[in-house]
Amino acid sequence: MNIYIQCEVFFREFDSKLLLAILAASKGHQVIISDIESIEKGIKKGFLKPGIFHTKSLTPSKKKILRHKTLVEAGCKISSMDEEGGLVTKGYDEFAKRRYSSDTLETASMVFAWGKEDYETLNKIFPKYSSKIFMTGSPRVDLWKPMFSDLFSVPSKFSEKPYILIASNLGLVNGNFFFHENILKLKESGYHKRDPNLIKVLFGRASEQIKIIYSFIEAIQLLAKNNKGYDIILRPHPSENIESWKIFLKNIANVYVIREGPINAWVKDSFAVIHNGCTTAYEATVSKKTLISYVPFPLKYGNDLPNQLGHIVNDKHSLLNLVNDIFSNTKNNNENNLDTSKNNNISEKIYFDNNELSAKKILKVWEQNDDGDLSNANIWLKFQFVLKIMKLYGIINKMLFNIKKNKDNKFPKLNRNEVLEKFEKFKSILKVSKNIKCKILSDRTILIKL
Asked: Of 32, 174, 236, 285, whose CB neighbour count within 10 A is largest?
């Protein structure tokens, strides 16, 4: 069976989709992981034959609805797991109304849920399509399991000094687009029509995020000046402008702004994680990593759910004392002495099966939807030629028209050695004995097959 997996935000999604691809390839399927443009072009030209197209959302924009109808007409079946997940706010109704519609669910064959809440909400709002909705859990959550702990490591060039990780999620006002550009994109995608209150909420959230940024700057300055021998790593969200944070935190000793590699490695090797409204709070909680929710003022529009996890701290001096105490206890192997944090039940949001990977559950559903018409041979040489032409056009556009796409921020060019090294690690962890191969077809496209 042909499987085409869209990857939009590399550092958020690639590892989990590589896990999916390797498991599928070990069952004899041919899997592409790529950006949407490459997959779409290959299918349109007929060099990629009908298969399952796995997308990152079913947001009902006109462009996406047209794209999915075109793919279905070409013989493909569409599956989706929303990568945003609706994890950071209580309830799922508003998120579902923004990110799904009858039109997109009509064209989809399979919709995978992160947990009980989104599964039940989607069934409630769209009962007509309940047979298409499956509670599998997310492959991204699979990677939080201990079996994958050796998969991730921080860059070797980084200092061996202990560090605390600060996970930032403030892309609305510190993103790669101006605030008004974000509003325009949402309007063009019809979000404001599906949720008339959304624009007001975003303005409120933007005002709070500005204050959060400054509160974090003050807290980081205090931690850097008064810590007990550790570094501070600030990890911007993929949607954030990393250069802004480097300016905000310039010339503060032992503070580093880093987005290199997946966040899993940085969480694993830190002695604690600080956040405000970030989904990393869930990973830290599941991974039993010491978590601090820094909430310096009451939030009306913020991501309140993750802020109920871990140690909840409301001012920078209490934060300093707590972090230094955690660090001292960690050095003395007395972490349990500080176990007063709140780890509320997150099972409503996240389905976590200790006995089976979510990626395997998804693969089973894919195979159940194979009607025998999704396994025709692809024309790989011609597809690779199309990829080379696309790359050439991209270079020409940059040279002649100074066109700079946001793609490099979301999906940087693949590093061949890093991809192949991770591929072999996955095979070893999963105990895949079959001789599956990973081939880099372009800067943003890989093929995995027997």
From this structure: 32
* CATH superfamily for domain 150-338: Glycogen Phosphorylase B; (3.40.50.2000)
For the chain, domain boundaries: 2-144+351-397+407-449, 150-338
pTM score of the predicted model: 0.92
Alpha-carbon distance of 436 to 434, in angstroms, equals 6
Tokens at residue 156, please? Answer: 């070797």
Q: What is the mean pLDDT of residues 163-167?
A: 97
pLDDT(406) > 70? no
| Whether pLDDT at 157 is above 70 | no
Q: Which CATH architecture has domain 2-144+351-397+407-449?
A: 3-Layer(aba) Sandwich (3.40)
